[in-house]
Amino acid sequence: MPSTLPLNDGSAIPALGFGLYKVPADETERVVADGIAAGYRLIDGAEFYGNEREMGDGVRRAVDAGVPREDLTVTSKFWGDPVQSADALRASFEQSAAALGTGIDVYMIHWPRPARDRFVEVWRAMLELQQAGRVRTLGVSNFTEQHLQRLIDETGVTPAINQVESHPWLPQHELRAFHAEHGIVTQAWSPLGRARVLSDPTIQAIARAHGVSPAQAIIRWHLQLGGALIPKSTHPHRLRENLDVDGFALSDDEMAQIAALETGERTGTHPDERQ
Ligand code: A2P
């Protein structure tokens, strides 16, 4: 069972979950049910992924098979097209909640979209949803230090989680330090660099030394940094492999070797670029 990380709202999330970005809708119910059966307890979805109805079906299938609903963390995110506003946030939340039909435990602003300058208004509307008991935990995604600082300064409420792209080529050390200072959990998306980092020779050598796969070595690195992550796979054997990371530990030297791989290379969009 994955270890959990405490959040600044008094709750906790599993450090290791799995994501549903680009999982085809017609495979999503099975992937969710397989993932929960394998031992995952956090499922990361979003309005934008177009598979929330099927995600809800997968969660229900797992609950019907005996997994207590309260053991699961169901995540959704507000996309914000065509407008990012408090009204749009409320409408989108209701749509996601209806599609899932399972309740939403963690709700996030998917992108800050800083050029529109509406994310503080949206955050205030999210705080109202939380006060009304509609959602337990509030987070953001793809926020930079500057965006986070504005939320904190203007509303006095710090997000519990910031989900950002992070993998050995983009470790986000400075952002992680800012998060640590403010009690924000770093949750990595594309934690394997969309599989491209798996062929990195340093990662391969470290994996060989421990008799594990490159994916397992990278997942271990994320956990030892103290972060959360949501590796994605549509294959049941890989979902299981990615959970099986408690039998070894990376040395300080290996952590330093991985830290030296930083290139700043992104597999996705920079937070400031998505308008
Ligand atoms: P697949 O879905 O075919 O298993 P990220 O989470 O960084 O975006 O990476 C996801 C990519 O990594 C997917 O293409 C996924 O492929 C692949 N992947 C996930 N886990 C593993 C693994 N244990 N070994 C090899 N590839 C993996």
Automatic annotation (TrEMBL):
Name the residues annotated as site: Lowers pKa of active site Tyr: 77
Q: Which InterPro entries match?
A: AKR, Aldo/ket_reductase_CS, NAD(P)_OxRdtase_dom_sf, NADP_OxRdtase_dom
Task: Give the residues annotated as active site.
Answer: 49 (proton donor)
Question: Which residues of the sequence carry a binding annotation for substrate?
Answer: 110
The GO terms this record gives for MF are: oxidoreductase activity, acting on the CH-OH group of donors, NAD or NADP as acceptor
- For the keyword Oxidoreductase, the answer is yes
Keyword Transmembrane helix tagged: no
User: Domain NADP-dependent oxidoreductase, which positions?
Assistant: 22-261
Superkingdom of this protein's organism: Bacteria
UniProt keyword list: NADP, Oxidoreductase
- Family in the record: Belongs to the aldo/keto reductase family.
Name of the featured protein:
Aldo/keto reductase
